[in-house]
């Protein structure tokens, strides 16, 4: 299957980072403000910071820690014979929380290691989502049966692409949902995360984006409380075939602050501009809502579909942490390697 080649893994994670970086400067701007600042067509180029790089935010940071957590869970499973992946990814999220300026948790102080913590740039705080921060600060872990809040914010779906790269589609769906439940108690927030993971896995099996969306809807029909996600995915498909402008269509899906809307906007943009990565990302961020998260999800989907070679080179060159993000994509693609070196890179906790 050609889609299993490494360029699609790289496209998925790098694509997400570019959408995040494109949308970040306008995350909190209304559309009229975006147009006033950047012109009638909105923001169509990366905004570079003082060091010449466009900045990624919590969406990409947490995606990186999700990927790291998955690889460390695999190390545990291979070496210990047993592993609960969401627990190992929970430790990865605690490392992310530490990068955001919060103290280490004393009862799990052994988990604060690994190569991501050696990257100074990852310690930047870029408007991290409140549901993620507040739930990770608690002593107890959220689960599907014992949620610690009722959030359906987009903070779970925006970080969930790596599940679809690393696991078969049904396992990706389940583990993405269980991992989402660590920080998001509402079923819709969890199902949006499972949906993105499932859809990425479908795309890697060579499905078109629209077929992957239909198959995700079918998958959701077997789940309780999935109507909100199903409805936004159906909207995304029908609106992508309509005569409505991008802005009009996106406004009918929502603003993307909540999981199912962010997913719907990402799917809409990826279907409508499936042959034009640049235009898909531009459409995905120029609205009054959560531009970096809708950009990240669009980039994940379309990057997995079209591969790294279809992503504008100058955007890749001008965005921070691309080398590290590519490294994670390569490691997710790689077959597990036994030995001390791999364990040192991805210890099983
Ligand atoms: Mg963000």
TrEMBL record:
It comes from the Bacteria. Mg(2+) binds at residues 57-59, 290, 292-293. Signal peptide: none annotated. Gene3D superfamilies: ADP-ribosylation/Crystallin J1. Its cofactor is Mg(2+). Keywords: Hydrolase, Magnesium, Metal-binding. InterPro entries: ADP-ribosylglycohydrolase (IPR050792), Ribosyl_crysJ1 (IPR005502), Ribosyl_crysJ1_sf (IPR036705). Binds 2 magnesium ions per subunit. One of its GO terms (molecular function) is metal ion binding. It holds the Pfam family ADP_ribosyl_GH. SUPFAM superfamilies: ADP-ribosylglycohydrolase. PANTHER family: ADP-RIBOSYLGLYCOHYDROLASE (PTHR16222), ADP-RIBOSYLHYDROLASE ARH3 (PTHR16222:SF24). Belongs to the ADP-ribosylglycohydrolase family. This is ADP-ribosylglycohydrolase family protein. It comes from Alkaliphilus pronyensis.
